[in-house]
Structure formats: C-alpha cells, structure tokens
C-alpha cells in the first residue's frame, strides 16, 4: 500500500489580520514593552510591531501623530521627575542621618 504525500505548504511570510495588528499596537500603547509583546504573540521582532504602530498612526491622521508626540513628551518628563524624586530621597536620607 503506497502512502500519499501531502503537498508541501509554502513557507512564506506569515500574514496577520488588521484586528491582530491593532490589538498588538494597543498593547504597546497601553504600556507593555515591545519585547514582551513580541514574545507573547510570537512575532519575529519588535521592528514589525513598530511598523504597525507607524502605519496605524499614519492612517489615523495628524491628531493621532500629535497625541503620540505628546505621550513621548510626557514620558520624558516623567523620567526626569522620577530622577529628581530619587535625588531628593537620597538627600533626605543623608540629612536625616546627620542629626
């Protein structure tokens, strides 16, 4: 008895539907790291995730781009304020020891 071979499945690029891409980008916007999203969803690299984000922002128009710029600005300010807070905590610890 001879066995039939299944035809080979072409090994091309994986295709992701629009909903999958939108959900992945939303996870990124919600604060998850790109590396954790890539690992969780089985993507090849973070590059594809950032490309999807860029494409979605381009489709959304100038309002979304300005919001993305504002988010980046606020994240930078948050990092600066956290550094200032950490310095003040250390200063407080130093001054409270000298009493």
TrEMBL record:
Gene Ontology molecular functions: DNA binding; transposase activity
GO biological process per UniProt: DNA transposition
Alphabetized UniProt keyword annotations: Coiled coil
Alphabetical list of SUPFAM superfamilies matching this protein: Homeodomain-like
InterPro entries reported in the protein's UniProt record: Homeodomain-like_sf, Transposase_8
Keyword Coiled coil annotated: yes
Segments forming a coiled coil: 64-91
Transmembrane residue ranges: none
The protein's name: Transposase
Record organism: Lignipirellula cremea
Lineage of origin: Bacteria, Pseudomonadati, Planctomycetota, Planctomycetia, Pirellulales
């Amino acid at each position: 008895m001879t066995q039939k071979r299944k035809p080979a499945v072409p090994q091309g690029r994986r295709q992701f539907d629009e909903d999958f891409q939108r959900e992945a980008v939303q996870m990124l916007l919600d604060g998850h790291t790109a590396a954790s999203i890539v690992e969780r969803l089985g993507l090849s690299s973070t590059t594809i995730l950032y490309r999807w984000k860029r494409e979605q922002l381009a489709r959304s128009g100038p309002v979304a781009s300005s919001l993305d710029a504002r988010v980046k600005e606020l994240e930078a300010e948050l990092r600066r304020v956290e550094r200032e807070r950490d310095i003040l905590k250390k200063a407080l610890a130093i001054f409270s020891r000298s009493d």
